[in-house]
Amino acid sequence: MEATARLTASDALRPRRLLRKSPIQFSSADPEGLWGDVLGFRRLGGRFRASRRLVSILAWTFIAIPIQALLLVLPGRANVAFGQVYFRVLCWLIGLKVRVVGEASRQAPVLFVSNHSSWLDVLALGTTLDACFVAKSEVGQWPLIRTVARLGRTLFVSRTRTATKGEAGVIRERMGQGDSVILFPEGTTSDGGRVLPFRSAFLSVADHARQVQPVSVVFDRLGGLPACRRDRPLFAWYGDTDIFTHFWRLARHPGGRATIVLHDPVDPADYPDRKALAAACSEVIARACATMRQNRPVVPLRAPLPRIPA
Which InterPro entries did the record assign (predicted)? Predict the structure, then answer.
């Protein structure tokens, strides 16, 4: 007589033994993988693109260094014009287009106040504004970048409060010579999704500027299409990521676009103190950045004046 196999309710609910001894491994889909941007890039093609851009940038930089060194010795402002040419060629080599909304103030010296999310801000603003940058002192210790920054008349400042007063005097001296200055009052780079609070101590030099002009910078295109939230880490350089790693990750992708909004300049004398000026500039910069991140049309804004109590 054959035995008939019957499953009881408890047997049916009993879990069967897994034949696979190790769990299934899934590949990650992060910006380093195959789905890094809106177009999707191929690993081999991306590496070739990054290598080509790196070699081109190094070649152009080594050509520009002796030219700019000579122009710095000669009288006139030819070194300033060549500095803008240098940045424009860099943007072209890296595939970065720059769109400018508004007009830069010509009443030098001007203190340009901008948000800061990446080293790409320097390239984009360098093509647009006739001004020198204020950078953290650590930049003056980086190989090659240190040389390029010094040839561009960059002012290096420390982030410590004890050194702020002395370095503010250096910035005032440069502005006293008629040079405009580009300042990043956030004191560091953000993740590209917000504007960090401004440090009012950086605006202590505003009393030597004829005008203060807020500037908004957002990277709003990648591969010809609107950049979305997941694309922001490709442009933003923050945290502990070194500059070469960030460049290599970005350079593998198709070109992008930076939109610069030059807001209406203001008279620093219209504000009672530097905190009020910093708050007003931060407000208009943040509003314009939020508008551009939503891929909406943007126009230059006017910084609000302080309210006078009745």
Answer: Plipid/glycerol_acylTrfase
231-271 residue pLDDT tens: 888 888 887 778 888 899 889 988 899 999 999 999 999 99
- Alpha carbon dihedral 145, 151, 155, 158, in 10-degree steps, equals 30
Residue 290, SS3 per DSSP: helix
Q: Which residues pair with 221 in a beta bridge?
A: 226, 257
> Which one-letter amino acid corresponds to residue 32?
E
Which domains, and CATH codes, for the chain? 41-293 (3.40.1130)
Could you report the per-residue pLDDT of 85-96, keeping only the tens digit for each?
A: 999 999 999 999
pTM: 0.81
Whose tokens are 């901008």? That residue is: 114
